Amino acid sequence: MPSVLQLVFLFFAAVTVVGALAVVLVRNLFHAALWLAVTFLSVASLFIVLNADFVGLSQVIVYVGAISVLMLFAIMLTEDVVGARGLSLRSAWPAALPVAAGVCVVLVRWFARYAWLPPQPPKPGGTAGTIGLAFIQKYLFAFELASVILLAALIGAIYLAKEERS
Amino acid sequence: MTKPIRTEEIEVSMGPLHRGMEKIAEKRTYFQYMPLVDRFDYLAAMLNGALYCMTIEKLAGMEPPRRAEYIRVIMMELNRIASHLVFVGTLGLDLGASTPFIYCFREREEILDLFDLVCGARMTFNYMRPGGVAKDLPPEFAPKCREFLKKMPARLREYDDLLSNNEIFVERMRGVAKIGADEAVNLGLSGPTLRASGVGFDIRRFEPYSVYPEFDFDVAVREEGDCLARYLCRTEEIRQSLRIVQQALDGLPEGPSSTRINMNLKPAAGEVYHHIEGARGEMGCYLVSDGTTTPVRLKWRAPSFSNLAVLTSALPGWKVADSVAIIGSIDVVLGEVDR
Amino acid sequence: MLFDLIASFIKAVLVFAVVMSFVPFLIWLERKLVAWMQQRIGPNRTGPFGLLQPIADAVKLIIKENIFPSGVEKITYFLAPMMSMIPALAAFAVIPFGSPVRIMGRTVNLQVADVNIGILYILALSSLAVYGAVLAGWSSNNKYSLLGGLRTSAQMISYELPIGLSVVSIVLLTGSLSLNEVVRSQASHGIWNIFPQFLGFIILLISYNAELNRAPFDLGEAESEIVAGYHTEYSGFRFAMFYMGEYVNMVTVAALVTVLFLGGWQAPFGPEIPLLWFLIKIFAFILLYMWVRATFPRVRYDQLMALGWKILVPASLANLAMTAVIIVLGGPNAVRILSVGSIVLAVLVGLVLKAAVALRTKSAPGLAPPAGAGS
After folding, report:
1. Cα–Cα distance between C258 and C267 in angstroms, integer?
2. Interchain contact, C150 vs A61, CB within 8 Å
3. Is C115:C109 a contact under the CB 8 Å cutoff?
């Protein structure tokens, strides 16, 4: 008999899978982007169910609130995409099938060999503080590297926008 | 993310409001046509009426009494203020500020109350007559008018607080749709729209009519030629008009307010053109008489019609959101565009 | 366990009911207040002082036919109004509106859920609010809706950055993401956050005005440009939901700002009466927004974006850096130094801006010479 939390987990896991499938299968690009947002949201819920509240809410802010909206934005601004037939599995399946099967095999083998941690009790003060400390102590280099990459992306975006205006 | 949405081309389409008003004049006597004149520029009907009467007087070669001239000036300037108040209010409303609109209409109401007192109408007055005005001023007019004049400076400061000194408003108007002096003259602009481009042409000053030479006032001119300049020119004109009304009220001569003339006026055959400084620019009336009771031709030079022409060159290149400010700053009354 | 469950349930229902019943009152208040500011009378036909006007409006909207205009995407069109209202309501769950009270020998937090990362939760939900505009703009099959949806969503995403950055400064001061903790830290500092974070407060004030799509930042529904923006095609109850969502959002933002900057439920003076001070602060904040709406004309879209990206984001970054440095260097005196420093800085910035504006606008109206030299 699974516990309530497990049932909730299974529910969101199912939503994630269905959403991800819909992203690939629906023909309308706008709908695909919306399904992507649904998938992100249910992944965030999974994080929260697993007591990773900070990661979960960051996922909502960054992926659902910003990245998906930007995608929707791009689709809305692109002419002839709305309502047009997007890429579907039907046209490309001979190529997609072996790639997907390969990725699946690799992932399953890797997951099977991975040493999973036992379930952790929830942290009393939330995980935000621990994650913050980890960022500036143990993972400082990776953290700074990521910020440099983002800075580069930012400068690139400004450069592109400037070019277009003149 | 591509270019911001800009106006590329504009076609000014006129005509939907055409009522054949100039043609109607040819089937009416000079007096019968009087009420219709108010419907040209319905926001400044006193000015329309005054122009029409002055043109007839010029045609018939007569002079109204001095008191009538003074009353006309008071009415014209009050009406100019009322018209500019509508401009200020609607411009603010177009830019999303609803409060100045109501404030301006509050003051306009007071002017309309004054008109109501004088002639019983608030919009289309039918107050001017060839040879004077329909009725002398009622005794309670002068005190009420003075009260209004006293109130106005504080009210104008309110508009300044809400619009002229408001950074958002100024930022949306400054530098938008600049019209150079040469371009403004070539396009036949007139009125505040012209004076905002640095051309200080005001008919009241340079081809004086009525009793304007007797008053001390300044012509509001600005050099910038942008939307803000057009706005500031009009607010300054409100102040100058207040000065004129004050002087006219102080110097109001005694005497008759009109001369008796035959209702079936038959001016001698001939043609005449007269123009005055309307609220929106040079307002002109061209009358041809063949000696009968009806004119052969009446032609109205409507300032809004000519000023509208600037849109084809002023709008393209500016953002769609700016078009609201640009059209608003030119202050068009469609009643006189399509006559 | 059962007691907690029942308490949570009652609190959730109560908060929902109170917030929703605020909405008609706020609509009435805004109409009446703006009317008074504009020398009008405002609603006065239905009920005493027109108090029943929003009820009448709601009834009218609810009994209207539900129209699906031709060519709309039915599901997304149906979802959009909900997406604009639900996040605002859900965000209210973590707002603490009073100090804990004792009922039947147990301590009950006056808060639906004491989430220890409540601030993050509210930011996450407010980032979801964009979807209402996006979905409505896209599904309506109308170019004005699309433009309005694009404008609103870009605007909301842009202004979430300064909001997030100024909230982070508060988090630095508090050392916690819990809203309860934020209120408690303001009590222990002995000074409300509005003083040490005065710049953050101003930034948040402007940014939330844009986030709420209220005048002067109501670009998404600028009637002189794009009709009614993303809700052009909506009518009846769905339109009412957009309308209510806007006001629920306003209450939520007011409550959030009260908690973050105005000391939450604490009394500025006199005895602490539960809820009273909280409500007074919320209403003071809402009245401020109504006043702003009655005063300012609408900005242009590029100006809005320039304000957000070129002024507010750098300003909030500077504020964040300043706060961090002073907290590290100032030690126990950090809050006092910040209070004095930020208010002096704000006054200086204000004076400089005022002088700059005055310099630019103050070119006296040119007047033609009074001498009438011929034309």
Report:
1. 12
2. no
3. no
> Where exactly are the structural domains of chain A?
1-88, 122-166
Alpha-carbon gap, residue B310 to A64, rounded angstroms: 48
- Kindly state whether A4 is in contact with chain B, defined as any CB-CB distance less than 8 angstroms: no
C124, C137, C157 ranked by CB distance to A57: nearest: C124
B268: left (phi over 0), alpha (psi -120 to 50) or beta: beta
Minimum Cα–Cα distance from A157: chain B residue = B1
Q: Which amino acid is present at C16?
A: F
Is residue B74 a contact partner of residue B50, using CB atoms and an 8 Å limit?
Answer: no
Please list, in sequence order, all residues whose beta carbon lies within 8 angstroms of the beta carbon of residue C17, skipping any fewer than 6 positions away: none
Q: Strands B270-277 and B282-289: what pairing? A: antiparallel
What is the four-CA torsion angle of C1, C6, C9, C12, rounded to 10 degrees? -90
- Asked whether residue C363 is assigned to any structural domain, the reply reads no
CA distance linking residue C327 with residue C345, whole number of Å: 17
Chain B positions in Cβ-Cβ contact with residue C295 (cut-off 8 Å): 97, 99, 162, 166
pLDDT mean over B221-225: 83
What Cα–Cα distance (Å) separates residue B201 from each residue in B180, B208, C111, C319?
14, 12, 69, 53
pTM (predicted TM-score): 0.80
- Say if CB A44 and CB A63 are below 8 A apart: yes
What are residue A108's phi and psi, to 5 degrees?
-65, -40
* Residues B232, C218: C-beta atoms closer than 8 Å: no
Nearest alpha carbon to residue B208 among B219, B198, B199, B197: B219
B21-337 classified as CATH 1.10.600.10: no
**Percent helix, strand, coil in chain A (nearest 5)?**
75, 0, 25
User: Which range (A29-38, C218-227, C271-280) has the least confidence?
Assistant: C218-227
Nearest to A66 among C76, C149, C157 (CB): C157
The answer to whether domain A1-88 has CATH 1.20.120.10 is no
CB contact under 8 A, A34 and C76: yes
Range of the domain at C167: 67-358
- CB-CB contact of C313 with C162 (8 Å): yes
φ, ψ of residue B283 to 5 degrees: the values are -105, 125
Q: For chain B, what are the domain ranges?
A: 21-337
CB–CB of C218 and B206 under 8 A? no
Q: Which of C222, B58, C123 is nearest to A61 (CA)?
A: C123
Tell me if residue B189 falls in helix, strand or coil.
Answer: coil
- The ipTM of this complex is 0.77
**pLDDT tens per residue across span B6-29:** 788 888 888 888 888 888 888 888
> What residues does B128 pair with on adjacent strands?
B133
In residues, how long is chain A? Answer: 166
